[in-house]
Every structure is written in C-alpha cells, then in structure tokens.
Design goal:
The chain is mostly helical. The chain contains 7 helices and 2 strands, in the order ααββααααα. It has 2 domains: 109 residues; 77 residues, no CATH class. It starts with a helix and ends with a helix.
C-alpha cells in the first residue's frame, strides 16, 4: 500500500485512479469467468507489477476453461476501450481511458508465461494435445518478450535522457520472472 500511496502522491496528472480502474475491470473479468466455470480463486496477490490469482487445486479448470479465463481480462479491456471511445462526446478523458485499456490489453496478450497471452497460448496448445510444444513456445515467448522490453526500455531511457525508465523496469521484472521460473522448474 505504501507504493500505491507514493504513486498517488507523485501523480500530478491524475493517472493513478484511471489505471486502478482499468486494472480492476481486468481482474474482475478474470475472476468472473473463473467463478462461472466452477473454479475458485484461493489467492489474489497485488504488486506493482500486476495481480496474480492462484486457483484452488480442488476446483481445477479444463484447458479450455483456462483459455477463457486468460483472455477474459484483455477482452474486458478491449471492450471498455471501445465503449469509452463511443462515449467520448460526454467526457474527453475517456480517450485517455480507452488508450489505457488498449495498452493494458495488448501488454497482457504478450506470449510470456506470467502474462495472459502466455497462459492462453499454453492452454490452447494443451487443449490441442501439444502440451510440450506449448511449454517450449511460452518459454521462448517469455525470453523474447523480456529481451524486447529490456532493449526498448534502454532506448526509451536514452531518448528521454534518463527520465522514463518504465519499460526498463518492466523488462528487468520479466527477465527476473523468467529466471525464477526456470530455477523453480529444475528444483
């Protein structure tokens, strides 16, 4: 909560409430689909890097259910972006909210194992009987995503003369997550 308070304090443009709203809709969509398919969320962990939901082993979802649950968050953000643009004649800030939701959906659809795109790709390939291929493709996607974000983050940091380091932090977080995932896979 301290990080959230600091972000809110430093937020001179009023971005944090809009980001929290977009993220809330995203996570509610995941949770709603999981519940509708008979799954149970046993842990919701929030961090500066996003949210993580752990499902109950006693109420597992099928690979098709996992696919639906994974795409529910980005799909809700795409729908909210579309509705926001339709309502922009009432409030111009809805353009910003539409863009924010579009960015959140696109980012989460990257094929990294800890993002919705990686979970969806793996669930789709498991459903098609290609579990091993799914694991390898998602691992490769995780490495490519982390590398791309690190490179883009360095370029952005250089272009903004050290003022914008957000992509670099995202890339470092993803590289650390990929490393942690590989280490726990071998234990």
């Amino acid at each position: 909560m301290g990080v959230l308070a600091l972000l809110y304090y430093l937020d001179g443009n009023g971005v944090v409430p809009w980001v929290l709203l977009a993220c809330t809709f995203h996570e509610l969509a995941h949770w709603s689909v999981i519940r509708a398919l008979g799954g149970r969320v046993v842990l919701l962990r929030l961090s500066c890097a996003g949210a993580e939901m752990r499902l109950s082993a006693a109420h597992p979802l099928s690979p098709g259910g996992m696919l639906l649950a994974a795409v529910a968050g980005p799909a809700s953000n795409l729908a909210i972006a579309w509705f926001s643009v339709q309502l922009v004649h009432w409030e111009e800030k809805l353009y910003f909210f539409a863009g924010l939701n579009l960015g959140l959906a696109c980012f989460n659809l990257l094929p990294a194992s800890w993002l919705d795109g990686g979970k969806a790709l793996e669930a789709l390939l498991v459903r098609m009987g290609r579990k091993e291929l799914g694991g390898r493709l998602v691992e490769l996607g995780s490495d490519i995503t982390a590398g791309f974000l690190l490179a883009a983050g360095l370029i952005l940091l250089w272009q903004t003369e050290g003022r914008n380091f957000t992509l670099l932090i995202a890339g470092l977080w993803m590289a650390a997550a990929a490393r942690r995932e590989r280490r726990t896979a071998f234990l």
